[in-house]
Amino acid sequence: MAFVTANWNPLGENFYRKIELYEMGWNLKDGLRDCLIAAAPYGGPIALLREPQRRSPSTRPQLEIYSASGGTLASFPWKSGVVRQLGWTVCDDLLCIQEDGTVLVYDLFGSFKRHFSMGNEVGQSQVVEAKVFHSPYGTGVAIVTGASRFTLATNIDDLKLRRLPEVPGLQGVPSCWAVLMQDRQSKLLVASGADLFILDYGTCTAVSPPGLSPQATSIIHICVSFSYKYLALFTDSGHVWMGSTNLREKLCEVETKVRNPPKQMAWCRRPKSQQPSVVIMWDRYLLVVGVCKDTIPYHLEDDSVLIPELDSVRIINATNHELLQEVPAACEEIFKIASMAPGALLLEAHKEYEKESQKADEYLREIKEQNLLGEAVRQCVEAAGNEHEAETQKTLLRAASFGKCFLSNFPPEPFVSMCRDLRVLNAVRDYTVGIPLTHTQFKQMTVQVLTDRLVYRKLYPLAIEICRYLKTPEYQGVSRVLKHWACCKVEQKEEADEVIARTISLKLGDAAGISYSEIANKAYECGRTELAIKLLEFEPRSGEQVPLLLRMKRSQLALSKAIESGDTDLVYTVVTYLKNEMNRGDFFMTLRNQPVALSLYRQFCKHQEQDTLKDLFNQDDDHQELGNFYVKASYKEKRLEARMSSLQSAVDEYNKAKNEFAAKATEEEMRLLRFQRKLEEDKGECVQGFSLHDTLSTLLSLGFHKHAEQLYKDFRVPDKRYWWLKLTALADKADWEELEKFAKSKKSPIGYMPFVEECVKRNNKFEAKKYVSKVTPEQKVKAHLAVGDLEGAADAAIERRNEGEISTILSRCSPTTDRLLVQTRFSLLYERCCFPELPIDGARLTSASRVQERDELYCNHTNKPRVSSQRQRHFGIDWTERNRLFTLEEAMGPVKVECVVKEQNEIGEGPVWEEKDATLLYVDIYGPKISRWNSLTNQIESMHTEMYVGCVVPRRSGGYVIGEGTRFAAVDWEKRAITTIANVDTEKSNTRFNDGKVDPAGRFFAGTMAVEVRPAELERKQGSLYSLHPDHSVVTHFDQVDLSNGLDWSPDHRFFYYVDSLTYMVEAFDYDIHTGGLANRRMVYRLEKDEGIPDGMCIDAEGKIWLACYNGGRVVRIDPQTGTRLQTVKLPVAKITSCCFGGKDYTDLYVTSAYKGMDEESLAKQPQAGCIFKVTGLGVKGIPPYSFSG
């Protein structure tokens, strides 16, 4: 620890350090001189080709592949052409680019995989220089030929060669060039002398770097950063120009005082660093040049190679592998001499603690006085991740753990995660593995990619241990490793098929995510067909076996497996394959042995190959299906004779099949066709091919009643069907006189209600009334209502003594005249039944006198009915019945709607009554603001919020809690201050809170939704329902919500009611008051079309739901136990948003509304849109709201 800063060198305000990673295990006697070398990024393998220009057959160049620690992975003599460049793909495949333009691809162990060409024209002029680069699209290759032409392939896995334009004035090879990424396109930056050109797919553009030194006459080296954001140019004057790759911004220009062309240049930049630098290497001399214009020189002992990385530069020579990087900020803060950073003080405190010194307490007190202990722990954890020495890591982590002991709310995840990461990193950095990743690189490449790298190197045990240690899901981790192991196992020729199959089965077992068919496919590709078949026996999914079985020419087995899978598409695939492979007779015999396949093939033939289907039926002597075939074929015939012939063939086949019904039906079809032909000849009306039903309808609509009667009798059409057809035809023609004659011709078999309905449907209530008297008593009320006769309907309802029909009639009445008239009639009719002593001429009695006489007769001084029980029984009405009838009448008293808050809100929402101050609390979502209306003074107080505010609730400890944006926040009303309690939907950027409410236990429930494009138009399934508990923890109850809205609890706290608006439903859950848990989701009410969109809600003391209907202009009362609508209160505006009970004894209903999304015309019609209304006279009470207890 004392020598941590010994290898630090200052560069401006930052420090750089050179760390030894490995002493190389290879044996290179001549060093790296005369070697072509390429190392993969992220600590990848190293490829080395000795003396690449050697062409003698007796002494060929040697291609060697090593790990980053120098461990040999592969070595073989190079027997192909002259190699110009080596490079690595993103999946650790080696690319060898030859001078003839051929690119050979090898795996990590030197096995040849494939090859491709960079174009035929390259072979003539040959490749002079090539570069391998990585982009978001994959691994790319760029070359320049002796003819000064550039060719580019952005992704070698989807090879598309692009020949780039010529560079003006370029003769021979350019002085230097590099690959850029601009606007998500791969481009080339080419230097010709002092001129720079950018080549893309269609153009060559001259560019000029801003502020380039005028002393420069030629650009001799170009270097692009790892992220393609920065560019460095080295000129013949010894200057280094650094700037952005778009050549619009200059960072700096530094004079190196060295004019010789460098061997290599590489950017060395830590992510988020403000001072990137460029590393320049000449023969055994290294110079680090920063944007601060300072430099750091290093003298090298041997020929070296620079490997650019995401956050550093690796330096490889014959004996050592080193890492050059900017010292990370956390390490600098802790280890810098005389540092007083929190992390440095915590490290010292821990050292003193281990010495049992009192100074530990002094250091800790100093950190805690500055309230920086959490920052100190964070610095130590971060610094541990950036150190390569295990002892230094342990020291820093112990210090962090020591500091955590004095923090009560420090999250453990960063510390635990770093410990896990370092254990993995130290394992892969080990000399025997040789993958020297930094923590930054590890986080960038992900665990899955690291696992793949270990698998490619066949380090299966280590890969499995890492997956299990990091608790990677099995199908992403262990199963992938085992599958790769199995695929390599089947390539081992020395072991028998049975042994390999058994070994793989024992090893893999039932591991999740492993398909034995993929392993079998690999075995088949290796020429081991029998092994492939044995492996397929372990595949539990039959559908996965079929494609490979077909490839292996095991057709019969493939068909059996396809049928087992139950996948019809798969069966069709196999059947089609068999049809093409076999002769017709063998094919049919094969299908006969597989009934499922035969049935599916028949279905296919019905739609695609009719002739084949006929052959199948003939071969099976299936007369029934042949008859069906001829019937279907007849419909395709245009000529009547041909159609009759097909039908006659069908009759013959049905007779052979002894299907008398089908034969007779077909004969009747032929008879109908003959009738239709005769009708066409006599009347000129074409009804050829019509069904019996359509023929009758056509005849009736044309007025050919005699022909219709004849058809009706000849074909024995049921009376009810014929009457319906004739009724509909006469009504369509508006032939009311003929319809009346038809109704009187004989007793209707379909009754007379259809006559009423058909007349009403065609807006002729006058004709409809003619048939009302003929309908059955059960349909009388319905018939009277259909023609608009409310009095007649009332008479019929009273006569039947049906309370349900009475309620229906009342619901159909207008609020004033009709209702008064019908209720008066109910009273008169009731009195006629119960009080024959009263005069029955109601017209001569005033309402007051009738009520007085009724009451005198109705009750004596003991409040008992004077009507005898015998008379009550005679008329079917008793005392309870009378009470129920008049209670219904009295309950229909006046309901008053009054606009009380005239200040309009864009979207008024979330009303809550505060009983203590007689105020109404509510929000304007898009205001965005919280408001309080004082019902005593009619004054409004408001407080604006930063983001959209969806709901507000009282807080037991004072103030309020709101759902604002995607956070729960506390509101101090007096100080007008808002502080965050908890955040939700952190991974989403387009959601906000909507409605919310507090449960009986003091938990705050609120839901989210996507931000609306227009009212009720938004991205679906983005919302969730959350609850904020008193300890400020947040529970997610469910997601996939469209528009979270109204919510409330039943008075007994057993049920939770909820609205997701775009489902047009009110839903219920079983509710656990102790835990806040929801279960057994179900629908209790679905809104009708005219009711609008369900929005906010509240519960009355009787447990009934009051639901605001957005765009419906109403609030409806719903019984959640029966799912029925009990009452509707209409308001003078359409966009009703929410409601709550308030006022004295909670008998008033307050209703909020909105005007957002309304045009000028709509606002002119609804000037009170956005106001708040008070509804009185409902006859029910509400429940006081609950307060958040946190």
Verbal overview:
Among the domains are: 130 residues, 7 Propeller (Methylamine Dehydrogenase, Chain H); 74 residues; 73 residues; 68 residues, Vps16, C-terminal region (DNA polymerase, domain 1, Orthogonal Bundle). A hairpin with a 2-residue loop joins strand 15 and strand 16. The strands form 13 sheets. It has a five-stranded antiparallel β-sheet with strand order 1-2-29-28-27, with no helix packed on it. It is built from 36 helices and 53 strands. It is an alpha+beta fold and 1190 residues long. Belongs to the SMP-30/CGR1 family. It is found in: Cytoplasm; Lysosome membrane. GO terms for molecular function: actin binding; calcium ion binding; enzyme regulator activity; gluconolactonase activity.
Query: Ends: how far apart?
Result: 48 Å
Rounded to an integer in angstroms, the radius of gyration calculated over CA atoms is: 44 Å
- Summed over residues and divided by their number, the pLDDT gives a mean of 86
Question: Would you tell me the structural class of the helices and strands?
Answer: alpha+beta
Q: Outline the low-pLDDT stretches.
A: 833-893
What kind of oligomer do you see? single chain
Shape: globular
Walk across the major sheet and give the strand order: 1-2-29-28-27
Assigned CATH superfamily of the domain at 34-163? YVTN repeat-like/Quinoprotein amine dehydrogenase
The percent of residues in helical segments reads 25-40%
What's the total helix number? Answer: 36
Largest sheet: 5 strands, antiparallel
User: Might you state the CATH topology name of the domain at 34-163?
Assistant: Methylamine Dehydrogenase, Chain H
* Strand portion: 25-35%
